[in-house]
Amino acid sequence: MIQIDNVSKSFHGTQALDHLQMHVPKGAIYGLVGPNGAGKSTIIRHIVGAYRPDEGEILIDGENIRENASIKEKIAYIPDEIFYFAQATTLDMMHYYKGLYPSFDEQYFYKICKCFPMLNLKKPIRSFSKGTIKQVAFVLALSIHPALLVLDEPVDGLDPVMRRQIWSLIMGEVADRGTTVLVSSHNLRELEDVCDHIGILSHGHIILERSLDNLQSSVTKVQVAFDGDLPPIPEGLQVLHSVTNGRVSTLILKGQPREAQEKMAALHPLLLDVLPLSLEEIFIYEMEGEHYEVKNILF
Ligand SMILES: Nc1ncnc2c1ncn2[C@@H]1O[C@H](COP(=O)(O)OP(=O)(O)OP(=O)(O)O)[C@@H](O)[C@H]1O
């Protein structure tokens, strides 16, 4: 769906994007994670056609988005700072969107408005709280039934109940229509329950991009105990991290859980458990292997 090749962008000598490569498959929920200033908003603004790269290429469904109205009308974008016309109400914006997006679904708009009881459709949006303004943005964006939904720090300012409500509406769109979602955040934890692909952005380029399936089979955590010292680890198992407490050792191994379990079982331990790893742990160990200062990137 989104193919980004070698994109660079500088602002007055500040290199915001540095030969960035990124691929978002169709139907994916792709989480773009990185610290302040990593370049998340800059790459997102390129994807929605607001910025032109100094170098490189961005293709959406094989086409360049710049000056391309037919691609733009399939994309809904919620920026990190949302602006509406000064006096506009949600109903005014609904009529504006209806004129702008041929796929705008008015019936669906009224249906999902009911999920947001605080939303008064006839009051000026600028009188709303930050969280309610975000709700307006989601109601409008989802009513387009976009092929691509681009969200820059979407849950900032929303309480946990609203976050869940909004994610369940997004998941509904993904399930019913195969919508592709690109969502940015500072925090991997925020995205780990919803994304099936993750890209980690640091200093203007993607340092790691993985699908969840690929991730879950890439690192394994095992707890083992032996009657004596920990024997040499079998060939083919790379130890990324190891802690021993008395007889019990916790090992983080590169590779698939089944392979790790079989090879460790062949050593006849007194105890052998394969333990679940959070997405955050997987990234930490994967990137430690690549000598990145991961804690600065993920938290
Ligand atoms: N319009 C601009 N003019 C000058 N510098 C810019 C501009 N936009 C971005 N930058 C710089 O580019 C770099 C990347 O900024 P960007 O806003 O893309 O980061 P981000 O990952 O979205 O950060 P945050 O999480 O704080 O929103 C920063 O150094 C920023 O100061």
TrEMBL record:
The keyword ATP-binding is annotated on this UniProt entry: yes
Protease found in the keyword field: no
UniProt GO molecular function: ATP binding
Alphabetical UniProt keywords: ATP-binding, Nucleotide-binding, Transport
Domain ABC transporter: 2-228
Protein's recorded name: ABC transporter ATP-binding protein
Provenance organism: Roseburia lenta
